[in-house]
Amino acid sequence: MEKWNRLLGRRSRREKIFEEFNAAKKAPIWGFFVLIAVYIVGIIFVNKTSASDGVFILSGQAISHRSITGAISSVCNLCLVMLVVLYKRPGFYVSILALLSAFPSLIIRIIHHNFTVLPGIFTNILLLIVICVIFRYINKSDRFQQRMRDQALTDRLTDLPNRFAVSEMTEGLVQKKEPFAIAVMNLNYFKNINSAIGQQSGDEALIQLANRWQKLADEGATGTNDFLATLNGNEFSVIIRDYASEEQLRKSVESYADALKEKIVIDNCDFVLSASIGYATFPEDSKDGETLFDYAYSAMIQAKKTDHSGCICRFDESMLDDSHAMEVESKIRRTLEEDRFFFNLQPQFDMNHKLRGFEALARMKDENGKLVSPGEFIPVAEKAGLVDQIDHKVLISATAFIGEMVQKYHTDAVLSVNASVRHLLQTGFVDEIRDALYSSGLPAEQLEIEITESVMIDSVEKAIDCIHQLAELGVRIAIDDFGTGYSSLSYLTSFPVDVLKVDQSFILKMHSGEASKQYVAAIIAIGHVMNFRVVAEGVEETDQLDDLREIGCDYIQGFLWGKPMSPEDAAKLIEQETSGSGGNNPQPEQQIVNHS
Ligand code: C2E
Ligand code: MG
Ligand code: MG
Predict the structure, then answer these.
(1) DSSP letters of 187-206?
(2) Residues measured by CB to lie within 5 Å of ligand 2, the ion
(3) Is residue 586 part of a domain?
């Protein structure tokens, strides 16, 4: 039957689905025409020059037309081979046609006793054989690859695409920037059904349901373009495209829930199933396919919590607190256990582009090697009481690194490390800093601790005491993200601050109007009155730099002059500075190297 379908050009459901994936991986159509054009031009040239006694003049040397005919005809042959390799069947037909069409003129020439074309005939015959062999081989290996791919992307029980297929599909849509939604559907109480009627009948129920939902998707009864998949056992997912509004999307999701209202009959027993459904949309909820899937999953869990007999929930950020945070927390714990936290260094410069120092920024990769942003893991680590361990790891490894640089290059670069409130307020914090200085050999005045204004809310007295102790050690203090938090000037007078770091949100807004620029100017002026140096964070554009120069900023930190970089790249920058070629540093690429 499958053979007949293929002969009649009918595609099976699965073939249609996987066609979408493969479409993206085909060679571009313009290449097909370029190869044909090169071939035609080449053949015209060969035909004209093979009989000509003309010459080209190259660098004063005469080169006969005939001597380059061979090279051009090789290029033509290569074009035909490329057509078959890249464009398979259409390429094969075009190549065969091109080769066969050359034979009549060659044969006519032989009839007219022009035997110089004999090598051409042999080459054409040889090429015909080569092209047929290549085509046959490609066809075979393509079919094999296709079969393997289909198997890897298909759920054996329901014959629907599986979780991998969902990942591939979402990746493709994200790349194309096409809006879509992912819904995760979990059948309620399915374990009970399995134990009541047995695993085999349970499987039969899943197959019936998969067919019913697939029919819904195939017939377009949901009003949207849907891609249904099985995740595992009683969990399904649908990727929904081409919806005009949130209402239409909601209706499409509801039609899957409604389809469950009709009973399923197995061994003459009637079953009515229900599902908890959660969904999230691209690009609104996340711009990353896997994260979006996690969000849809969180929404499904929320739906289950809300009503065990079937409920639909759209993702919203409050749902992250539970499931996503738990997931991030377990990633943090695993990374700490395996000692895989590492750091990047982002350079800070004075306004003449002379290196002032670096801020150490914690970095973490998940088990797939993908970077997790500190904006995501630091708040979770703070809540879970793990942030001091991350701070400690960064402190020890970054001070060791800059200490080494001091020994090697006698650099006076300052190292800034972030200290979370929780960490700062711990009893042993000052001792930890003292130990880090001692073991790294880094001079105290080259270490700067960045704290945020929120320490003043949590425990003012303890914070002031700790900061005084740090100052006694000779360590500098910077107020990070200044202007975003507590923003009371009174506390600034109560302890020995050295640096104010103006938050990047103010730098970003500077261009929105004179008032925003004056706001930054006021922060800088206040800082100077209090004898602090001011660092502007997040400087990305030359205009921002010019404005900051004009209003008297002391230092800048931002992508314009330096992204966070690996310690290896930071070492090169220090070497350049200390060898006197500083002030014109090349923009280092962001490169993440595990330095743990
Ligand atoms: P932060 O301490 O204010 O660090 C500056 C952040 O701004 C860094 O983000 C840096 O990559 C980013 N940045 C710098 N220049 C630019 C720019 O020109 N454009 C843009 N768009 N961004 C820029 P990152 O590395 O993602 O860190 C985010 C936050 O996570 C940090 O903000 C800090 O609060 C926290 N963090 C990072 N490492 C640590 C750590 O070791 N301990 C603690 N407690 N917090 C950390
Ligand atoms: Mg910072
Ligand atoms: Mg900051």
Answers:
(1) ETTHHHHHHHH-HHHHHHHH
(2) 418, 450, 480
(3) no
